[in-house]
């Protein structure tokens, strides 16, 4: 709705008085609005406030009244009307036309809430001027005086308010992550008293950690420093800057605007999203690609049918050739199909030069580094190489290396006497070197032994332990 204001220089705001009461209840349906008082039973003849479908009904009514001017000279949300024009001479005529239409439908205005022929006006919680949109200063003052939430209901109220203005907040998902974590299902909800509140009992206060209080304070400070967002101009080229981290993705939609005779890339909107648990396990490349897919989808009403190719900036160089890569996974094919709707070019830019980089990072949320077993892996590889040089087939059979389900790392147990059997040659004779009997997967699992691989050689038996990382479900190296 507010994107229609691009290029406007004059504004007039109108507020309808007793708007709902101007709509008549359909004949025969008045009894549905009946209510009881000590003076008797009464029913409404005009639509009251509070009915389920009252907002939708009045919106349809006001759209019909101003239908010929909608999105051309005015925008309407319920009883709030904003008239906009590109010059003062046209603006006066536009105001006259809208007032005449309101008079025909018997709609009255509350003059104390109206503003005429101005270059800056408050509308739907935003401060609007000729350059762009920013937050209403009164809303900012309310946030500055907001006390830390003491229960889940107060937290939901604060986050609901903040979410409405998230388009202005850089790093919103990153900053609000500790607060959002308190609303997770399961144990956390029980701890903060959500079930108690559902039974109409006052919820008990829940303790706020230092990280949560810092996040609450940082989110309040972000409101006070929220930037001016420019109006989107379909005639200007677009640039989308994206980045991803271990737990969030972020993006900035920018366009070029002239300031003091120079062109500058200025923000039109911010976007950030906290990754799902499954998405946090994606590889770096897929997370960076997901950031592009989600950002383009979020701004699809801008990106589809763009007059200029969209420049997408990323700090992951491999994504430059993504749309021309032949071998893709099923997930990547799905994303490529979504991106095919847009005309864009991916450009690499170093991470430290990418403004979106900060939308997805926070030091206290970095994932711990996994331990490595490179020394053990190298030892196993060397053992396999040495063993393969002396390998000779026995009875011309094709042997396959079979690995059972991996278990937690345990040392190979001592070989028992009953596991040592004579080494039989192809001619039926025996050698002096015993061989180690292969344990079946069931036996190894029952005995709690680590997985071992036995090479049955002609002259000797070699037993090698297959080493693996505890953090994976597959062998890390062979």
TrEMBL record:
InterPro entries: DNA/RNA_pol_sf, Retrovirus_Pol_polyprotein, Rev_trsase/Diguanyl_cyclase, RT_dom, RT_RNaseH. GO terms for molecular function: endonuclease activity; hydrolase activity; RNA-directed DNA polymerase activity. Keywords: Endonuclease, Hydrolase, Nuclease, Nucleotidyltransferase, RNA-directed DNA polymerase, Transferase. The lineage of its organism: Eukaryota, Fungi, Dikarya, Ascomycota, Pezizomycotina. Residues 353-376 are annotated as: Disordered. Transmembrane segments: none annotated. Residues 1-128 form the Reverse transcriptase domain. Pfam families: RT_RNaseH, RVT_1. The keyword Transferase applies. Signal peptide: none annotated. This is Gag polymerase env. It comes from Lasallia pustulata. The keyword Amino-acid biosynthesis does not apply.
């Amino acid at each position: 709705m507010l994107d229609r204001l691009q290029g406007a220089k004059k504004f007039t705001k109108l507020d309808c008085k007793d708007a709902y009461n101007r709509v008549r209840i359909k004949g025969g349906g008045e009894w549905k609005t009946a209510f009881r008082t000590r003076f008797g039973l009464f029913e409404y003849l005009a639509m009251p406030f509070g009915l389920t479908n009252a907002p939708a009904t009045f919106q349809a009514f006001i759209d019909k009244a101003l239908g010929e001017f909608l999105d051309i000279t005015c925008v309407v949300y319920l009883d709030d009307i904003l008239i906009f024009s590109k010059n003062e001479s046209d603006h006066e005529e536009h105001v006259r036309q809208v007032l005449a239409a309101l008079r025909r439908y018997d709609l009255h205005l509350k003059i104390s809430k109206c503003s005429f022929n101005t270059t800056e006006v408050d509308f739907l919680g935003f401060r609007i001027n000729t350059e762009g949109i920013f937050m209403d200063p009164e809303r900012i003052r309310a946030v500055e005086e907001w006390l830390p939430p003491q229960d889940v209901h107060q937290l939901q109220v604060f986050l609901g308010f903040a979410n409405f203005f998230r388009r202005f907040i850089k790093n919103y998902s990153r900053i609000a992550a500790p607060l959002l974590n308190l609303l997770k299902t399961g144990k956390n909800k029980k701890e903060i008293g959500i079930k108690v509140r559902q039974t109409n009992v006052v919820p008990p206060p829940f303790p706020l950690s230092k990280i949560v209080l810092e996040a609450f304070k940082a989110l309040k400070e972000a409101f006070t420093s929220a930037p001016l967002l420019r109006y989107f101009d379909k005639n200007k080229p677009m640039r989308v800057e994206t980045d991803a981290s271990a737990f969030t993705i972020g993006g900035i939609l920018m366009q070029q605007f002239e300031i003091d005779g120079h062109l500058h890339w200025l923000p039109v909107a911010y976007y950030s999203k906290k990754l799902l648990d499954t998405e946090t396990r994606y590889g770096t490349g897929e997370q960076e690609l997901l950031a592009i897919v989600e950002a383009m989808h979020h701004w699809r009403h801008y990106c589809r049918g763009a007059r200029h190719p969209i420049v997408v900036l990323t700090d992951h160089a491999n994504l430059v050739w993504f749309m021309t890569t032949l071998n893709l996974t099923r997930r990547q094919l799905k994303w490529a199909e979504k991106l095919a709707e847009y005309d864009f070019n991916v450009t690499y830019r170093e991470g430290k030069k990418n403004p979106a980089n900060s939308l997805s990072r926070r030091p206290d949320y970095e994932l711990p580094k996994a331990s490595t077993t490179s020394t053990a892996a190298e030892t196993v590889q060397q053992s396999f190489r040495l063993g393969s040089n002396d390998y000779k087939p026995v009875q011309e059979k094709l042997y396959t290396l079979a690995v059972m389900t991996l278990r937690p790392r345990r040392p190979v147990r001592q070989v028992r006497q009953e596991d040592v059997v004579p080494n039989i040659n192809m001619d039926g004779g025996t050698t002096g070197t015993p061989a180690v009997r292969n344990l079946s997967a069931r036996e190894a699992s029952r005995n709690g032994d680590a997985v071992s691989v036995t090479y049955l050689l002609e002259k000797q038996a070699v037993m090698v332990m297959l080493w693996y990382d505890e953090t994976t479900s597959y062998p890390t190296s062979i």
